[in-house]
Structure formats: C-alpha cells, structure tokens
Amino acid sequence: MPIFRRLREDLATARAHDPAARSGLEVFLVYSGLHAIWAYRVAHRLWRARWRFPARVISQLTRFLTGIEIHPGATIGRRFFIDHGMGVVIGETAVIGDDVMLYHGVTLGGKAPRNTPPGTKRHPTLDDGVTVGAGAKILGDITIGAWSAVGANAVVTRSAPPHSLVVGVPATVRPLSHQTADAARGVHDWHI
Asked: Which residues cross the membrane (predicted)?
C-alpha cells in the first residue's frame, strides 16, 4: 500500500475510534499511538532486512518519546489503533490482526521458560477486530479470537474463541451478546 494512502487510513482509523479527535491535523501531530505505529513500521522493515540493532534503537527511542514499546519483530495488521497509549508493551512474537484497538497500559507479553530457543512464539495473537481494555495483560502464546473484547485489567493466560468477552483475574471467557458484539465492531460507541 502506498505510504500516503496508509497514512490517510491511519488518520481515518484514529478519528473513527476517538470521538475527541477534532481534526486530521491534530491526530497527525499529537497522537502518540499513531507515532508509535509509524515508527514501528520503519523498525519492522529494518528488522525483516536483518538490521536488528538499528531496529531496536528505533523502537527504544520511540518508547522514550511515546511511552509505547512495540518490538520490531511483532507482526501488526492494518487499521491498528492505540488509544492514549502510555504503558503499552507489545512483545517480539506478538501477532495483531486488522482493526484491532488497544487502550493504555495493555501488555501483550511473553510466557516461556528460560533457555527457550530463539524464534519460539512466546507472545499472544489477537485476531481481527479485537478490542483490549485499559491495563489488560495478555500473556503467552495464546489466541484471542476475532471480534472479541478483553476487559480492563483482565489477566489472560488462555485462548478465547471468536466473539468472546474475556474479563477478570484470572480471566474467564463468555460469549458476547449481539449488542456487545455490534459495539465491538464499532456499530455503537462503547468503552470497556
């Protein structure tokens, strides 16, 4: 996808998810979640080209500037949005689908024993359309199914099927109601 088209898509995604966004210029200049995603894309290209050290330098500089740490080895889809963003951590082997939204303080963390071989998947997969509430911790090589919602401050260590509501410490999985599923797809305004 051409870079300017991708930037326009990112700006439109932010404006669609955040009712406080007043203009494309404001989103472009002050949304740290977008700045972190843009820097991640540069670092990810370097990572894939095996320029690992410069990629890590960019990711750490971005962390310092935005408060959002995205490992350059993570895989992230289109229309990904981080609302507010401070304290978000996305690990090296995390996989994030299209149309995913994270709130501040979310961790997509690893869970593996010491001496795990390099390249082993240790971080979660979020399928398309997943929304993760503020402060949630999703740990290990698990999958959160498409169009699911993870509640604020949930600690998730087990996979969830599509269209699930994942809440609590430790998290439990429930099916989403039709109304909540519509909200997760953006049909209604909601926050978890």
From this structure: none
Determine which helix (DSSP H) or strand (DSSP E) holds 58, and give its type and residue range. Answer: helix 52-66
Distance CA 20, CA 40 (A): 24
List pLDDT tens digits, range 94-104.
Answer: 999 999 999 99
pTM of the model: 0.86
- The distance of Cα 65 from the centroid of its chain, to the nearest Å, equals 18
- Cis? peptide before 54, omega within 30° of 0: no
Beta strands in 19-171 (DSSP E): 69-70, 75-76, 81-82, 89-90, 95-96, 101-102, 107-109, 125-126, 131-132, 137-139, 143-144, 149-150, 155-156, 164-167
Query: Are the C-beta atoms of 162 and 145 separated by less than 8 Å?
Result: yes
Both structure tokens of 83: 């609302």
8 Å CB contact between 87 and 79? no
Domains of the chain as residue ranges with CATH: 74-192 (2.160.10.10)
Tokens, residue 19: 């009712």
pLDDT for res 113? 74
| Ordered DSSP codes for 139-160 | ESS-EEPTT-EE-TT-EE-S-B
First to last CA, the chain: 32
